[in-house]
Amino acid sequence: MKHDELFSIDFCTLDYECAYLPDKKTRMFYRYIPNADKDLASALIKRGWRRFGNSYFHPICHGCSECKSIRIDVERFRPTKSQRRAIKRNNETRVYLHTPTLSLEHVELYNKFHEYKEKKSGWRYNEMDLQTYYEEFVVGAHDFGKEVLYIKEDKIIGVDLIDILDDGISSIYFYYDPDYEKLSLGIYSLLVQIDLAKRLGLKWIYLGYWVKGCASFAYKTAFKPYELLDGFPSQDSDPNWYRSEDD
To answer: How would you classify the pairing of strands 94-98 and 68-73?
Structure first.
């Protein structure tokens, strides 16, 4: 199917409080595409879009362009000492890759993680239900969306939602059991993605957005070398990715 024949609906949100920068407002542009294929998903992610379920989106904030799309260069990446320690901490953690699934265990773990982040980092907690989880993390995966499960002591301790695209892996969302925080599962999950990309011959890990000064995104620039995207180019324009000055 040609991309111009795909059914889609465009819409945007009203301004709301920015989760990344104080005293800022954000607005998101959405494109609902229930039958997107891998080629289209690859083209959009390469141009700074993100995907939750059947919805692709990127910010269109008035007077602010601090959200920068960031991607890791898989071929040139070399782990730091602290990243190698994360690998050692997880030598007994089992990893499974398969199609995104829905279970009560998934949703309970997601809510446990967000309750913890509300207390630790001031995240706004909204309880996830089964239907919402299904719409955000299960549908829209088609043949390219996957989940990586992290298992220890016969239970799920981490879930990583990803898209395996034409030129790289797009990180959608990762959550974990706070009881296992000492394993550095967030760092380890990205190292697993990088290893998977190498095995598949893919060049990039698309990490979503990075905002300078936002503590929640600070870990992303520890994975070097990386590139940033200039704006959010249209589908008929070539994306301009460039090396960061501090990379």
So the answer is: unpaired
Return the CATH number at 128. Answer: 3.40.630.30
The four Cα atoms 84, 190, 210, 119 give a dihedral, to 10 degrees, of -90
pLDDT in tens, 167-219: 999 999 999 999 999 999 999 999 999 999 999 999 999 999 999 988 888 89
Task: List pLDDT tens digits, range 82-106.
Answer: 999 999 999 999 999 999 999 999 9
Task: Give 217's DSSP letter.
Answer: G
| Chain centroid, CA 190 distance in Å | 10
As a whole-number percent, the residues of the chain with pLDDT over 70 amount to 97
- What is the residue type of 80? T
Instruction: Please name the residues in contact with 77: beta carbons below 8 A apart, sequence gap of 6 or more.
Output: 194, 223, 224, 225
3-state secondary structure of 65: coil
Domain that holds residue 174: 3-243
Nearest Cα neighbor of 185 from 99, 102, 103, 116 is 116
Question: Which own/partner pairs from 77-84 qualify as long-range (CB within 8 Å, at least 24 positions apart)?
Answer: 77/194, 77/223, 77/224, 77/225, 79/191, 80/222, 82/187, 83/187, 83/191, 83/222, 83/223
Concatenated DSSP letters of 67-115: -EEEEEETTT----HHHHHHHHHTTT-EEEEES----HHHHHHHHHHHH
Question: What are residue 52's DSSP bridge partners?
Answer: 55
How many domains, the chain?
Answer: 1
